[in-house]
Design a protein that fits this description.
Elements (H helix, E strand, L loop, with lengths): L1 E5 L6 H13 L4 E4 L10 H11 L2 E2 L3 H7 L11 H12 L2 H8 L4 E6 L2 E7 L15 H11 L3 E5 L5 E5 L2 E5 L13 E7 L6 E7 L3 H10 L4 H9 L4
Parallel strand pairs: 1-2, 2-3, 5-6, 6-8
Antiparallel strand pairs: 1-9, 4-5, 7-8, 9-10
Helix pairs in contact: 3-4, 3-5, 7-8
Length: 234
């Protein structure tokens, strides 16, 4: 059983299209999107339609929630992300917004190596980011509570894998706005065979220039285009 996990697409249709080509060449049994279809990027509607058309299993991300659900005005949040989310709300159709609103907080998948749990942030709150560098005991307790051999979380925009005891913790990174100092779209493949899961991290190249051009064409913050081209913030 082979699973592909992607996260934080953030409205980048050029990156998402490249990921689809990669997954066509690297066959998997299931694709799971760990939230944040929208935010930052210039093509939120096309990204939603793409994921819906592919039938990929998808969970709710923090940006998705803030676009689709009225969570109130949060003091101090007036940054780049907030500017784009306001714009995103205007760009989506009612059907696309409803698709985001109906996304579950996470999910679980039974596999030959044990249960896989996935969510964006934390098990019950997409905005409460789980620190995969937390003390070992803290993550051991979480793994025991969830009863999982693999735990996949999004939100950091940096691909990462860590094994603690019998549990593998994974952050797929970001398809649309990777921050590991290398431009490209991040994809994680988990092979659930044998005695333990095998995790492989992949960086997929795509047309960064077109993604950056779309940002500028819609007069979105130019810093987003810079991140797309460089893979780093600032």
């Amino acid at each position: 059983m082979r699973l592909a996990f992607i996260s934080d697409i953030h409205g980048n249709i050029h990156a998402l299209t490249a990921v689809k080509r990669f997954l066509t060449e690297n066959i998997v049994n299931q694709v799971i999107v760990v939230g944040d279809l929208v935010g930052y990027g210039a093509s939120p509607g096309p990204v939603i339609d793409f994921v819906k058309r592919e039938g990929w299993t998808t969970s709710l991300g923090s940006s998705d929630m803030r676009v689709a659900i009225d969570v109130g005005d949060r003091e101090g949040r007036r940054g780049v992300a907030d500017q784009v989310l306001v714009w995103t709300k205007r760009m989506l159709t009612p059907e696309q917004t409803d698709f985001l609103r109906r996304l579950p907080a996470g999910g679980r998948i039974p596999t030959p190596v044990g249960r896989v749990r996935y969510f964006h942030g934390s098990p019950h709150d997409p905005e409460q980011r789980l620190d995969l560098m937390a003390p070992t005991r803290e993550l051991e307790d979480l793994a025991q509570t969830l009863g999982a051999r693999v735990i996949v979380v999004g939100g950091s925009h940096v691909p990462f894998s860590r094994v603690i005891g019998e549990t593998t913790f994974v952050d797929p990174g970001s398809v649309g706005l990777s921050l590991n100092h290398e431009p490209g779209a991040d994809v994680v493949i988990v092979d659930c065979i044998g005695r333990k899961p095998r995790v492989s991290l992949h960086k997929v190249t795509y047309d960064y220039a077109s993604s950056a051009f779309d940002i500028m064409a819609w007069s979105l913050p130019s810093v987003i285009a810079d991140v797309i081209r460089t893979g780093r913030m600032g």
